[in-house]
Automatic annotation (TrEMBL), chains A, B:
<dbReference type="InterPro" id="IPR050770">
    <property type="entry name" value="Intradiol_RC_Dioxygenase"/>
</dbReference>
<dbReference type="GO" id="GO:0009712">
    <property type="term" value="P:catechol-containing compound metabolic process"/>
</dbReference>
<protein>
    <submittedName>
        <fullName>Uncharacterized protein</fullName>
    </submittedName>
</protein>
<dbReference type="InterPro" id="IPR039390">
    <property type="entry name" value="1_2-HQD/HQD"/>
</dbReference>
<dbReference type="InterPro" id="IPR015889">
    <property type="entry name" value="Intradiol_dOase_core"/>
</dbReference>
<keyword id="KW-0408">Iron</keyword>
<keyword id="KW-0560">Oxidoreductase</keyword>
<keyword id="KW-0479">Metal-binding</keyword>
<dbReference type="Pfam" id="PF00775">
    <property type="entry name" value="Dioxygenase_C"/>
</dbReference>
<dbReference type="GO" id="GO:0008199">
    <property type="term" value="F:ferric iron binding"/>
</dbReference>
<dbReference type="GO" id="GO:0018576">
    <property type="term" value="F:catechol 1,2-dioxygenase activity"/>
</dbReference>
<feature type="domain" description="Catechol dioxygenase N-terminal">
    <location>
        <begin position="22"/>
        <end position="91"/>
    </location>
</feature>
<dbReference type="InterPro" id="IPR007535">
    <property type="entry name" value="Catechol_dOase_N"/>
</dbReference>
<feature type="domain" description="Intradiol ring-cleavage dioxygenases">
    <location>
        <begin position="102"/>
        <end position="283"/>
    </location>
</feature>
<comment type="similarity">
    <text>Belongs to the intradiol ring-cleavage dioxygenase family.</text>
</comment>
<dbReference type="InterPro" id="IPR000627">
    <property type="entry name" value="Intradiol_dOase_C"/>
</dbReference>
<keyword id="KW-0223">Dioxygenase</keyword>
């Protein structure tokens, strides 16, 4: 390994990295180094551009902390987060599609009872959510841990409040024996992703707007089932077709209605006229999702003219 | 733009980014998004691996500061820095080849006279460097700003000393009217790149050693000439063929000799027996380098079956 040129350096880096004993890590580095080098060769990346990239990534790291996930936001705005979710949680009808986790999920949300109020925001429009969770055969799935979070009536998440005392606009419920859960969220509004950091500057330079269409996040977790990270988007949002993090899918756009039945209002302890969101979530089992992932992985390797073996359920090229 | 799938999301991101008014930035984002997405699709990047990558890049940014350039070190250890240098400073004989800048260059080095002592290190072996700078036609190049830096006898750069009071082991000279310069450096020793950060952990996981072969860095700058960032490596270093940052090239390996002539010892004010490094650097002019870059850029675009136009001397695809 000497006398490296623009053409042979990639092969030389692969040789050095091939000492790695983990076949999966070896494969990941072979592919990332190839793509990184091809990117530089194809664009004739200038020293100034390289420096700007190094500086940009450094700034993205430095502004990040436990409550501000700028690196995830970068991944989101490049469409990578959405892609990784699709790869890891492949769906086929009738399974509910996933979408980006986003940078605002936290692990400190409190457990709440059905019917609980998600937000303390006095200016928000209350939104009763009545949802079911079923498996792909139509059977109710009970005891699913349902993590719900959303921004307030101004479009801000609690973690964006510098004086945040504790979680607000987020909570964790369990689906009941009939796979049902309900809560009082708020009608979501569009909001800009944070524009005061390096990712915001990037979007400005690209001529992109920062506004996400309003949505309520849901994460559904139960052993034996494939984790579902998704969100529901009320129809008609001005940014529905140009989400900066590529999170909207047709199947996740919902028509809100209104509680017009007094029996229903009584059952859920809300006033008549309260806005209503209903949705029937469908989870895949872990084996169903694993089989889909495996099929897709084999196809992806065949596209590269490579034979595949699996290492901890993840594909690596056969030697 | 809706109903994104693993297959169509890349095209959708391109559509959104095509709003960018700068054709060069548009091209860079088209290529980086394509490669990033292809990487995820080819490897079926798992959510855990994606999270590890996000966390890794965040840590690389967070440990970086004015004196510790971990993001550059990452680029170095992936072979990207060497590649970017080769792209931006293409050479053809007799021009001196470039190599990585590395993470230890600073901008606070003091101007020194010829013959000055680079290091205060009392344990080092003195190394007289007597060098010339010529152009590709063999004419001496005077008034070149020559930035020289190297580690100490233990392999540490001054910036790695937490009590650093000012620059040591670095200095800036000017070539004289005959294109000559000389200084008293030290015989360089191999040293490990910093292993206490995320890049060090990465190398460990890849089974790679961290030891760079000993070298002295040189950066040569003069208006009208292509910037030369290079280093010289005394022959026989145990890590000569496995440099973790891919910086060694045959033409940059030098045989050290000894000052055996008393006239020479007197001329350079060193003792007889002092170790001696001589080297004849050859700079390209800016037009020579620009022409080479342009030729290489056209070839790189042809490989992609794209016609090229130039925007601020950098290639972009013709519409």
């Amino acid at each position: 390994m000497k006398d490296l040129t623009t053409e042979n350096i990639t092969e030389n880096v692969h040789i050095v990295n091939s000492q790695c004993s983990d076949p999966r890590l070896r494969y990941l580095f072979e592919r990332i180094v190839t793509h990184l080098h091809d990117f530089a060769r194809e664009t004739r990346l200038s020293t100034e551009e390289w420096q700007a990239g190094v500086q940009f990534l450094t700034e993205v790291g430095q502004i990040s902390n436990d409550l501000r996930h700028e690196m995830i936001l970068l991944s989101d705005t490049l469409g990578l987060s959405m892609l990784v979710d699709s790869i890891n949680h492949p769906r086929m009808p009738p399974a509910t599609e996933g979408t980006v986790l986003g940078p605002f999920h936290t692990h400190d949300a409190e457990t709440m009872d059905h019917g609980a109020v998600l937000h303390s925001d006095p200016d928000a429009t209350s939104l009763l959510c009545v949802c079911s969770i079923k498996d792909s055969q139509g059977n109710p799935v009970s005891d699913v841990k349902v993590d719900v979070w959303e921004g307030d009536s101004k479009g801000f998440y609690d973690v964006q409040n510098p004086n945040r005392a504790g979680p607000d606009g987020r909570g964790v419920l369990q689906s009941d024996s009939e796979g049902m859960f309900f809560l009082r969220a708020i009608v979501p509004v569009p909001y800009p992703i944070p524009m005061d950091g390096p990712v915001g500057k990037m979007l400005s330079k690209l001529g992109r707007h920062p506004n996400r269409p309003g949505h309520v996040h849901f994460m559904m977790d139960k052993p034996g089932y494939d984790l579902l990270i998704t969100a529901l988007y009320p129809r008609g949002d001005p940014y529905e077709a140009s989400d900066p993090v590529f999170g909207v899918k047709d199947s996740l756009i919902v028509d809100l209605s209104t509680v017009e039945d007094s029996k229903m209002a009584a059952k859920y302890a809300v006033e008549l006229g309260t806005k209503l969101l209903t949705y029937d979530f469908v989870l895949l089992t872990e084996p169903e999702a694993r089989e889909l992932r495996k099929k897709n992985a084999i196809e992806a390797m065949e596209k590269q003219q490579r034979k595949v073996v699996f290492h901890n359920d993840l594909p690596v090229p056969a030697q």
